[in-house]
Each structure stands twice: as structure tokens, then as C-alpha cells.
Design a protein that fits this description.
This protein is α/β, with parallel strands linked by helices and about 270 residues long. It is about 35% helix and about 20% strand. It contains eight helices and 13 strands. Strands 1-2-3-4-5-6-9-12 form an eight-stranded parallel β-barrel, surrounded by six helices. It has a two-stranded antiparallel ribbon with strand order 7-8. Strands 10-11 form a two-stranded antiparallel sheet. Helix 2 links the parallel strand 2 and strand 3. Helix 3 runs parallel beside helix 4. The radius of gyration is 17 Å and the shape is globular.
Length: about 270
């Protein structure tokens, strides 16, 4: 998939590729700050990079949780980031109509959320835009079952598809990553390890998802070691102030050191 994105930098690099950005678009200044930092790091380590930001947060535990600054306002910011830095962008969609809406703002990769990956109409709507499609593996699905989600994209005439691993449900309030699933799913498509969402602790009594960000480096290193094609990391200048998923995000200042370590792991296994 990554080689098919026109605006991707360092596409011939032997490094892993990176999808990173804030959980949700909170404003233009914040989005540009994060993108500028990561673009510089992607050049430093020769990492192909896709900017990520959710234009809308539809999957919330409580009705008073932050859902976004407005669909078109957020999409316009994502568009500006992509154009200013000449990089591909991605955002998640939750309804069939969101596929065309996001595509109309120049989003290059449409992400299907884990809880919606079995929704045929949504997957097909994304595929038929001609944009690349990433399919988050449901916490309730086996790696083998993802071949059917991939096939829906292919059967819709779109070969730009990848799978995102984000952990399996472990009891009611935790997730665990089965790294055996990465090589299994690579038989169907490129695989991206969503490091930060794999460290969520959902279904907390407070109605706010928890997380284990201190394990980001551990999970990321393991993913690179088993040969994942890409890494997905949500990051923020100050996760404690993030409007969504702050409990499992990486502080932006820590990304340089992490990418340096992951690049060295990648070099060691090639």
C-alpha cells in the first residue's frame, strides 16, 4: 500500500513506515506543531510518514465526551497539513457518507475503526473512493478472519489496503497483543501495529478509557522485531491535556528517541 501513495516521502527506504498524529484534531496550531515535528523526524530517520488525525470521534463511552471541533473544520485542517508539508494524510470514518466527505478534502487513506471492520457497506464505500483503506482488526476477531475484510476491499476494485493490529480483548478492561497475528495477516496485506491503542484499558468505571503509555517502547520494539510493515502512534505535546485518548498517547518530545531505537531494531533484523 505504502508504495502506491503519491505524496509519500522516502518510499524506497527499507525502514518501517509511520502513521502518527493526534487522536483528534483539536485545532490548526496543534495539528501543525505535531506534523512539523514528525516530518523532521521522518526525514532524520528516512521513515515514510502519514499524518493521522480524527476529524470526528464517534466511539465515545459517555455522551459528554469530546467528539470534535466540527467535521468540515477538522477536515479542512487535515487538508492544510497534507498540502503544506506535501505528505499523505489519514482519518477514520464511521458512516458510509464519511467516505466521500473525507475523500473530498484530499484525505489519502481512509481508516475503518476496529468495531466497524465487519460493516460491509462502510468498507465498500471506503474502497470505492479509490483512496487507500486501512482496516483495524476488531478486538474480537482472529488474525485469520481479517482476510475476509481485505477481500471486500479487493472485490470493490481497490488494491490499496492494509491491516492495523490493535490488540485483542483481554477480560473486560484490558487488551493484549498476540504478535503471532502479524505474520499471519501479512499473507493478506501489509500490517501496521497500532502501538498506542493496543495499550488502552477500555471500559473503566469512570467512563474514560485508561492506558499504559509506559509500555509504548516495549510494544513498538516487539512489533518491529517480528517484522511489522508499519507503526501507528498517537502523540500530543501534552497528553494530560489531550481531548481524547490522552491516557495512552506518547508525549511528542519522546518520539525522537523512540524512532531512533526502532530504526536500529529494524536495521538489525534486515
Amino acid at each position: 500500500m505504502i508504495q502506491l501513495l503519491d505524496k509519500i516521502h522516502h518510499k524506497d527506504s527499507k525502514n518501517f513506515f509511520l502513521i502518527a498524529g493526534p487522536c483528534a484534531i483539536e485545532g490548526e496550531e496543534m495539528a501543525f506543531e505535531i506534523a512539523e515535528k514528525i516530518v523532521k523526524l521522518s526525514d532524520k530517520y528516512k521513515i515514510p510518514y502519514i499524518f493521522k488525525g480524527s476529524f470526528k470521534k464517534a466511539n465515545r463511552s459517555r455522551v459528554d465526551s469530546f467528539t470534535g471541533i466540527g467535521d468540515e473544520k477538522a477536515l479542512e485542517i487535515i487538508k492544510k497539513v497534507g498540502e503544506h508539508f506535501n505528505i499523505p494524510t489519514t482519518t477514520d470514518i464511521h458512516e458510509n457518507a464519511h467516505a466521500e466527505l473525507a475523500a473530498s478534502y484530499g484525505v489519502d487513506v481512509l481508516q475503518i475503526p476496529a468495531f466497524l471492520v465487519r460493516q460491509t457497506d462502510l468498507v465498500v464505500a471506503a474502497a470505492k473512493t479509490g483512496k487507500a483503506v486501512t482496516l483495524k482488526k476488531g478486538q474480537f476477531l482472529s488474525p485469520e478472519s481479517m482476510k475476509f475484510a481485505v477481500q471486500k476491499v479487493l472485490d470493490s476494485g481497490n488494491d490499496k489496503v492494509a491491516i492495523i493490529e490493535r490488540g485483542n480483548s483481554f477480560g473486560y478492561t484490558d487488551l493484549v497483543v498476540d504478535f503471532r497475528g502479524i505474520p499471519t495477516m501479512q499473507h493478506y496485506a501489509q500490517v501496521i501495529l497500532d502501538v498506542t491503542h493496543s495499550l488502552q484499558q477500555p471500559n473503566q468505571n469512570s467512563g474514560v478509557t485508561g492506558g499504559r503509555p509506559e509500555l509504548i517502547e516495549t510494544i513498538a520494539k516487539a512489533g518491529i522485531a517480528v517484522g511489522t510493515d508499519g507503526i501507528f502512534i498517537e502523540t500530543h505535546p501534552d497528553p494530560s491535556c489531550a481531548k481524547s485518548d490522552g491516557a495512552n498517547m506518547l508525549k511528542l518530545d519522546l518520539l525522537d528517541d523512540l524512532l531512533g531505537k526502532l530504526t536500529r531494531v529494524r536495521e538489525a533484523i534486515l
